[in-house]
């Protein structure tokens, strides 16, 4: 069964916007979706795959290399032909063992042929694509550490059982979770480019619409998919167009100062916040098909780019999103 | 007349058989004939899970012993690989991790049906909310007695596929309104209600959903999720019906019945102690299930006798135990196989076990303000020292926070060094204002860090409770009290254990309130010597 189409998700505009931005510019660094149960977090992330344009990769390459010379020598790939393939969106299940994530000795070959061969793991498959972790805050600590390391270096190194393998693993992290069930370490929080908080829609009309669409999806799947897949395709085309116009987009000095001032006023740790904010604002401008970056773009994406980078204040019950919004008002007026 | 929850339970099981997409049912009942009768109606091929089930058993994996024996790769199938009914016994013990794994499996829509048997004894001991959310039904059979039971397995031959059931768009709006009125935030609940209505119509061989289906659907899926008593709609018009209402032809039964009627169906089922339950849930948010404290990041453990088990990730083989288990069989095996040498079978494998216990961290938060210094600082110091000796015996970790003047200071980060703690404590000067909120805040930060490192923190606050410095360092008695209360609420929400020791000459009512807010033990100690203080603290901490 196809996942629920992205465009058919009612409301949740910030979450959808964040996902589109990261699809436009992968270097923004992924999305973290936090929210209550039953708000459509998982639905949205699973729907993301359909939005992503295909990539070119060497046929049969375990790490989806774009060029024949990048195919690792441990992978026995005979062909040099590249083909279109959907952008990989790899699910990292909670119970995944370290072996499955990084790759390990190919036990079948070791036992049957006595060969020492490398069996690539999820990180290899996610190269040049997306790595999706549902319930990211419940992930085992040692897997989190491993992910942090790879996300930082863009390279997966396996040194065990007499194997010494390294291969590129550049992926966009997409995570979702319910903060009530456990918090995420600040180190991992920071790795996500954007973060959004979702809540159930409050208006009765929206709620009715959500239920109606879900009902149609379940009971009249063919017609429903036909209608919404077209909408998804339209979004995909717009993403492609935005990717092109992103290169031509001008960044005025004035906006750079705005970004720096905003981050300074919020006291967000490190420069990563500033960079992400700038990239997100540029992607947003490209999505809106504007020619130059303005203060309005920065203002729009500031909450999602910065809210997870603030030092947590246990007394602030309003949440960090409000704090960002307040500071944006103060600094950018 | 048959007991209503029994009727609902049997009906729910039938609905699940018709539409597995409903996720499953949570049955709250202790082991007994009532539950056994109900379980007899569940699919006999159902597979059983238990809360400590390993990932390999769930998702499948390499069968190492079979692979080694046969020389080629043997993958074993996990329980989740094929769709079917799963029974989760002792569901209240399921950890968040297991709940998340099962939730993902249910989400993927592979037609798994989960029957969760919740045997919780206390109200806050219940199925993990994450999992409960994904099960359409919840029945409580604790009130059923044997006389109520009926063998109500109706196998209606006229049953049709739920997909074939039609439903007017009006119903959707109505269910959304009812869910909203009951304070149900999640969107899954109304979706389940609609599916249930369809399934119930299908069960009775009807092509369209009628009022009866709706009533039952609301009662089965919405009642147990309600977070507030439904408000009667006094004079207020219900939201305008969707415009497409008129365009519908009247082959379907009209649905102009008021929401009130359906709400009544739900209201009849709302538990009397709904509000109590809600406060209990709120108070312990984030902790709320019966899994017990997490054993994380342990560095020690008492070895327990090894036990027969399988080689899996993280398990350590007890070699002596394994050899001992294999020894008696050697002659027989040698005769059977004709091979010489040691022969070990998978059944011989013994796995090492350790008793794990989270290390405890005691965070002493000592009031060194002027008012305290005059009266009881010396006594408090003495008490802390005695407690330290006990902590040392238990190998607890200790941290020391002092607050005086305008700010709190972490005098000693978590340590096990008795000498160091004593030295810092002895050098603790007194005097200045009482920034209680700042002290609690520093202690709370330490507690959070400790939890992350796998320790179980307990905060012990020693103060005379006359807070007069607010968090921002200003001398404002009122603001100081408000700040302290606010942090107390945060502490409670976080579920940190705490104990408040009133070192004032007279018990301070404000301090008792504060202790109540953070759900902590309160010990007034007017005129106590250090030894008595230490004794009462030890009792309060439950040694």
Describe this structure in words.
The complex is a heterodimer of chains A (333) and B (543). Chain A has 2 domains: 6-52 and 87-198, P-loop containing nucleotide triphosphate hydrolases (Rossmann fold), CATH 3.40.50.300; 253-332, Magnesium chelatase subunit I, C-Terminal domain (Helicase, Ruva Protein, domain 3), CATH 1.10.8. Helices cover 46% and strands 16% of the residues of chain A. Chain A has helices spanning 13-24, 41-48, 98-102, 107-112, 122-126, 141-153, 186-191, 204-219, 221-248, 253-266, 272-287, 295-306, 320-332; strands at residues 31-35, 55-58, 82-85, 89-91, 103-105, 118-120, 129-134, 155-160, 163-168, 171-177, 194-198. In chain A, the strands form 4 sheets. Chain A has a 5-stranded parallel beta sheet with strand order 4-7-10-1-11. In chain A, a hairpin with a 2-residue loop joins strand 8 (155-160) and strand 9. In chain A, helix 1 packs across helix 9 (221-248). The termini of chain A are far apart. The model of chain A has no long low-confidence stretch (mean pLDDT 84). In chain B, 39% of the residues lie in helices and 15% in strands. In chain B, helix 5 (96-107) links the parallel strand 5 and strand 6. Chain B has helices spanning 4-18, 33-39, 55-59, 64-70, 96-107, 129-133, 169-181, 188-203, 211-221, 259-267, 274-283, 319-326, 330-337, 370-375, 377-393, 418-426, 436-452, 477-494, 509-517, 530-540; strands at residues 24-28, 47-49, 60-62, 75-77, 85-88, 113-118, 137-140, 302-308, 350-355, 360-367, 397-404, 407-415, 456-463, 497-502, 521-524. By secondary structure, chain B is α/β, with parallel strands linked by helices. Chain B contains 20 helices and 15 strands. Chain B folds into 4 domains: 1-155, P-loop containing nucleotide triphosphate hydrolases (Rossmann fold, 3-Layer(aba) Sandwich); 161-233 and 252-292, Helicase, Ruva Protein, domain 3 (Orthogonal Bundle), CATH 1.10.8.80; 302-355, no CATH class; 360-540, von Willebrand factor, type A domain (Rossmann fold). The chains are: A alpha/beta (333), B alpha/beta (543).
């Amino acid at each position: 069964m196809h996942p629920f189409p992205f465009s058919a998700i009612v409301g949740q505009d910030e979450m959808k916007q964040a996902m589109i931005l990261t699809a436009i510019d992968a270097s923004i660094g992924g999305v973290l979706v936090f929210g209550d149960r039953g708000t459509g977090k998982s639905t949205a992330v699973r729907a993301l795959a359909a939005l992503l344009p295909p990539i070119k990769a060497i046929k049969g390459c375990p790490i989806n290399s774009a060029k024949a010379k990048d195919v690792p020598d441990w992978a026995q790939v005979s062909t040099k032909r590249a083909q279109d393939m959907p952008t990989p969106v790899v699910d990292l299940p909670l119970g995944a063992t370290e072996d499955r994530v990084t790759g390990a000795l190919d036990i079948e070959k070791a036992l049957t042929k006595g060969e020492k061969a490398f069996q690539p793991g999820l990180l290899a498959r996610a190269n040049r694509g997306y790595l999706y972790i549902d319930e990211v805050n419940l992930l085992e600590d040692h897997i989190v550490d491993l992910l942090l390391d790879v996300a930082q270096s863009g390279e997966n190194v396996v040194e065990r059982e007499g194997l010494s393998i390294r291969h590129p693993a550049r992926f966009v992290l997409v995570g979702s979770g319910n903060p009530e069930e456990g918090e995420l370490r600040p180190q991992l929080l920071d790795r996500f480019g954007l973060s959004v908080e979702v809540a159930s829609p409050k208006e009765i009309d929206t709620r009715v619409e959500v239920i109606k669409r879900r009902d149609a999806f379940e009971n009249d799947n063919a017609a429903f998919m036909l209608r919404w897949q077209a909408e998804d395709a339209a979004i995909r085309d717009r993403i492609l167009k935005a990717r092109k116009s992103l290169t031509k987009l001008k960044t005025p000095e004035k906006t750079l100062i705005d970004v720096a001032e905003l981050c300074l006023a919020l006291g967000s740790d490190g420069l990563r916040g500033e960079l992400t904010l700038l990239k997100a604002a540029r992607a947003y401008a490209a999505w809106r098909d504007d020619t130059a970056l303005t203060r309005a773009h920065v203002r729009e994406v500031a909450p999602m780019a910065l809210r997870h980078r603030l030092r947590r204040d246990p007394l602030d019950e309003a949440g960090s999103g409000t704090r960002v919004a307040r500071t944006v008002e103060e600094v950018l007026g | 007349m048959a007991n209503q929850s029994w009727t609902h339970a049997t009906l729910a099981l039938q609905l699940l058989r018709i539409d597995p997409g409903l996720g499953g049912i949570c049955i709250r009942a202790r082991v007994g004939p009532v539950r056994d009768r109900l379980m007899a109606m569940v699919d006999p091929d159902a597979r059983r899970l238990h809360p400590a089930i390993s990932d390999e058993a769930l998702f499948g994996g390499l069968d190492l012993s079979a692979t080694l024996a046969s020389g080629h790769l043997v993958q074993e199938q996990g329980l989740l690989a094929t769709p079917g009914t799963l029974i989760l016994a002792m569901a209240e013990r399921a950890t968040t991790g297991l709940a998340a794994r099962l939730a993902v499996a249910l989400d993927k829509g592979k037609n798994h049906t989960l029957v969760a048997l919740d045997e919780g004894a206390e109200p806050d001991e219940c199925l993990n909310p994450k999992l409960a959310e994904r099960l359409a039904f919840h029945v409580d059979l604790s009130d059923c007695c044997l006389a109520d039971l009926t063998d109500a397995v109706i196998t209606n031959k006229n049953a049709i596929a739920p997909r074939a059931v039609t439903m007017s768009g009006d119903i959707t709006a109505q269910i959304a309104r009812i869910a909203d009125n009951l304070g149900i935030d999640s969107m899954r609940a109304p979706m389940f209600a609609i599916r249930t209505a369809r399934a119930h119509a299908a069960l009775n061989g009807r092509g369209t959903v009628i009022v009866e289906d709706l009533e039952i659907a609301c009662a089965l899926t919405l009642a147990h999720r309600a977070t507030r008593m439904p408000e009667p709609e006094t004079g207020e018009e219900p939201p305008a019906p969707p415009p497409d209402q008129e365009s519908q032809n009247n082959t379907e039964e009209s649905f102009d019945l008021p929401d009130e009627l359906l709400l009544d169906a739900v209201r009849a089922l709302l538990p009397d102690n709904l509000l109590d339950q809600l406060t209990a849930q709120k108070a312990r948010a984030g902790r709320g299930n019966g899994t017990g404290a997490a054993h994380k990041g342990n560095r020690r453990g008492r070895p327990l006798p090894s036990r027969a088990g399988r080689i899996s990730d993280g398990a350590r083989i007890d070699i002596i135990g394994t050899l001992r288990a294999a020894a008696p069989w050697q002659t027989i095996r040698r005769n059977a196989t004709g091979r010489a040498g040691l022969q070990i079978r998978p059944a011989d494998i013994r796995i090492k076990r350790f008793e794990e216990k989270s290390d405890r961290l005691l965070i002493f938060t000592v009031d060194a303000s002027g008012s305290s210094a005059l009266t009881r600082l010396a006594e408090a110091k003495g008490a802390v020292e005695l407690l330290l000796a006990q902590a040392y015996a238990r190998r607890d970790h200790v941290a020391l926070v002092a607050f005086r003047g305008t700010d709190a200071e972490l005098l000693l980060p978590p340590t096990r060094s008795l000498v160091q703690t004593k030295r810092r404590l002895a050098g603790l000067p007194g005097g200045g204002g009482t920034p209680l909120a700042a002290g609690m805040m520093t202690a709370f930060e330490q507690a959070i860090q400790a939890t992350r490192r796998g320790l179980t923190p307990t905060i012990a606050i020693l103060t005379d409770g006359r807070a007069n410095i607010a968090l921002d360092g200003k001398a404002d008695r009122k603001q100081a009290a408000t700040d302290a209360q606010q942090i107390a609420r945060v502490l409670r929400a976080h579920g940190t254990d705490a104990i408040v020791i009133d070192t004032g000459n007279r018990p301070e009512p404000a301090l008792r309130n504060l202790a109540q807010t953070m759900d902590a033990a309160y010990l007034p100690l007017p005129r106590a010597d250090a030894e008595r203080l230490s004794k009462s603290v030890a009792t309060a901490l439950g040694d």
